[in-house]
Design goal:
Layout lengths: L1 H6 L3 H8 L3 E3 L5 E3 L5 E5 L1 H10 L4 H7 L7 E5 L8 H4 L8 H13 L2 E2 L2 H10 L1 H9 L5 E7 L8 E8 L2 E7 L13 H11 L8 E8 L2 E8 L12 H6 L4 E3 L1
Parallel strand pairs: 8-11
Antiparallel strand pairs: 1-2, 3-6, 4-5, 4-6, 7-8, 7-9, 9-10
C-alpha cells in the first residue's frame, strides 16, 4: 500500500504541470517558480539489470554522461535515498541548533552526486530505494536530478498541507533547524498556493516550498497521509482541520 501511495506522487506524475508554469509574486511580478529537474528514464530493463549486477547498462550510462560535470541532489521518481544519512552523521536531540544545521549540511552532502559512481553508491546503499525497485512490476521509473542548492541556513523551507483542494496547514520544514525568532509569511505562501492549486491535480497532498527575495519557489509534491512527516503538527490535527492552521 505504501508503494502504491508514493507511486501516485512520483516526480514524473507532477513535474510537467509546474516546470514551465509562471506564478505571480505578491507584488504581481511574473516568474518561473519551479525547481529545475532532469528526469532520465530508468526502464524496467535497466532496473532488472541493476538488481542483478549492481551496475548500469551501457545504454543508461550514455544517457547519464551528458549531465556531468555538475552537482545534483539525486532521488528516484518515488523516493530519495535519505535513509542512509543518519548512518554517516548522527544528529542528537541535545545538539545546539547551529550544530544541528552543520550536521544537516553534512548529511545532505551525502545525497549530492557528481558522477555516475556516486549515483550507483546511493542506489546500492539505500534500503528505501532497494524496496521500491523490488516492488516494481513491469514499470519504468526515473532517475531524478535537481541542481544542487545548499539551502540549509540560507533559505527557509516550508511544508504546506492541502486537503480537499484547500490549504489547511503551513509549518517549517525541519523546524528543529531554525531559531524561535523565525516566522511564517502566511499571506505570501497563501498567495502562491492559491495559484498553484489551479494547475495541480491532487486534492490531498503536501507541497514543499522555499522563499527567496520575497518570492515563493516550488520544490516538490508529496503524499499527505499517516506516513507523511507533519513536523510541528499532529497528523490527526492537520488531517481533520477545515481551517488554515500554522505552526513553527
Amino acid at each position: 500500500m505504501l508503494y502504491k501511495c508514493y507511486h501516485e506522487y512520483s516526480v514524473d506524475k507532477w513535474y510537467h504541470l509546474v516546470q514551465n508554469w509562471k506564478s505571480k509574486s505578491i507584488t504581481n511580478v511574473e516568474y518561473y517558480s519551479a525547481t529545475n529537474y532532469i528526469l532520465i528514464p530508468f526502464t524496467n530493463e535497466d532496473i532488472k539489470y541493476f538488481l542483478r549486477k549492481k551496475q548500469f547498462l551501457d545504454s543508461l550510462i550514455k544517457k547519464l554522461e551528458p549531465i556531468f560535470p555538475g552537482e545534483y541532489f539525486f532521488k528516484l521518481s518515488l523516493r530519495s535515498p535519505k535513509d542512509i544519512l543518519e548512518k554517516k552523521v548522527k544528529i542528537k536531540e541535545r545538539d545546539h541548533r547551529t550544530v544541528k544545521i552543520e550536521k544537516k549540511r553534512k548529511q545532505l552532502d551525502i545525497l549530492k552526486v557528481k558522477n555516475i559512481e556516486e549515483i550507483l553508491f546511493l542506489l546500492k546503499k539505500s534500503k528505501r530505494i532497494q524496496e521500491d525497485l523490488r516492488l516494481i512490476k513491469d514499470e519504468d521509473l526515473f532517475l531524478v536530478f535537481q541542481p544542487w542548492r545548499p539551502s540549509i541556513g540560507q533559505y527557509i523551507e516550508y511544508r504546506c498541507f492541502i486537503n480537499f483542494n484547500k490549504l489547511v496547514g503551513i509549518c517549517l520544514y525541519k523546524p528543529e533547524y531554525y531559531s524561535t525568532l523565525t516566522s511564517i509569511p502566511v499571506a505570501l505562501i497563501q498567495h502562491y498556493i492559491e495559484q498553484l492549486l489551479n494547475i495541480i491535480t491532487y486534492p490531498k497532498c503536501a507541497i514543499d516550498v522555499f522563499i527567496k527575495d520575497n518570492k515563493v519557489y516550488f520544490i516538490e509534491i508529496n503524499p499527505f497521509d499517516e506516513f507523511t512527516d507533519t513536523f510541528s503538527f499532529d497528523f490527526d490535527e492537520i488531517n481533520s482541520t477545515e481551517h488554515l492552521i500554522c505552526k513553527l
